[in-house]
Amino acid sequence: MSSRRSSRSRQSGSSRISDDQISDLVSKLQHLIPELRRRRSDKVSASKVLQETCNYIRNLHREVDDLSDRLSELLASTDDNSAEAAIIRSLLNY
Amino acid sequence: MASADKLINTYVPEKDVFALHFLQSLSNLRTQNPLNSPDKSIDRVRKIKKAAYVSMARAAGGTSRLWSRALLRRAAKDDNKSVRFSRRKRKVTWKISSKRKRSNQRAPVVEEAAERLRNLVPGGGGMETSKLMEETAHYIKCLSMQVKVMQCLVDGLSPK
C-alpha cells in the first residue's frame, strides 16, 4: 500500500485519495441515486453507479428545464387562479 | 494513511436557503425589466432557468465548491462580467494537463464512465476522478433541492 502511495504522491502536492476512499465515494453516490438505493446490496459495480449517476443528473437537468418552462408560463399568466398564486406573483413583481 | 485523511464533506444547506435565493433571483428578473416585458417566451424561460442555476450555485456555497464556481463563472461570462474569487490557499489549476489525469487512472471502465460524468458536472473537466465524485455527490444533492423548490413554486402558482 505504501509503495503505491509514494509512487502517486510524486505527481502533485495535493493529498492522494486511496482506493478505499474511492469505493466509499461510490457507495455514497449509490445512496443518493433513487434507482440504486432500492438495491441495497453492495453488488453494484462502480461503473454502474457512475452510469446511473449520469442518467440521474440528466433527468434532473430535464426537470429543471421543464419546471422553468412551467414557471415562465404561470408567472406570465394574468388569471388569478387562487389567492396564493396572486400573492406569489405580486411578491415576485409580476 | 495520513495523507488520505481528507474529510469528504457533502453538507448541503436547508431547502429554505435555496428557496430564498431563488425567489430573490426571480424578483430581480422583473426589476431589471420593468416596463418592457420580454416578448419571446423562450427568453423568459431562459432567464428563469439561468436564475435557477445561479441561485442554486449561490445557495450551495458560492465559490467554495468547484462546480458552483464553474457555474457562476460560466454565467458571468454570458453577461460579460467577471466573477471575483477569493484567493484560495490551495493551488487551483484551471487546466489539468492530460499527463496528470492519465497518471490518476482507476480501472479503465470506471474512467470511461467518469468521462461522461465530467461532461455533466460543471467544472468537471479539470477534476481528478475522486474529486469529481465528491463534487458530483454535492451537485446532485443541490440539484434535487433546487428541483423541489421549483416544484413547490409551480404548485403554489397552479390553479387549484
Describe the structure.
The complex is a heterodimer of chains A (94) and B (160). Chain A is an all-alpha fold and 94 residues long. Chain A is built from 5 helices and no strands. The longest helix of chain A has 31 residues, at 46-76. Chain A is rod-shaped, with a radius of gyration of 23 Å. Chain A starts with a helix and ends with a helix. Mean pLDDT of chain A is 76; it is low at 2-15. With 160 residues, chain B is mainly α. Chain B is built from 6 helices and no strands. In chain B, helix 1 (15-32) packs across helix 2 and helix 5 runs parallel beside helix 6. In chain B, 32% of the residues are buried. The chains are: A mainly alpha (94), B mainly alpha (160). Chains A and B meet through helix 1, helix 2, helix 4 and helix 5 of A and helix 1, helix 2, helix 5 and helix 6 of B.
Summarize the structure.
Chain A: GO terms for molecular function: protein dimerization activity. The complex is a heterodimer of chains A (94) and B (160). Chain A is an all-alpha fold and 94 residues long.
Question: How is the secondary structure organized here?
Answer:
The complex is a heterodimer of chains A (94) and B (160).
Chain A: H1 2-9, H2 19-32, H3 34-37, H4 46-76, H5 83-91
Chain B: H1 15-32, H2 41-59, H3 66-78, H4 98-103, H5 108-120, H6 129-157
Helix pairs in contact in B: 1-2, 1-6, 2-3, 2-6, 5-6
Helix content of chain A: over 70%
Low-confidence stretches of chain A: 2-15
* Rg of chain A (C-alpha, Å): 23 Å
E-strand count of chain A: 0
Strand content of chain B: under 5%
- How far apart are the first and last residues' alpha carbons of chain B, in Å? 58 Å
Q: In what range is the share of β-strand residues of chain A? A: under 5%
Q: What about the largest sheet of chain B?
A: none
List descriptors:
heterodimer; A: 94 residues; mainly alpha; 5 helices; 70% helix; 0% strand; rod-shaped; B: 160 residues; 6 helices; disordered N terminus
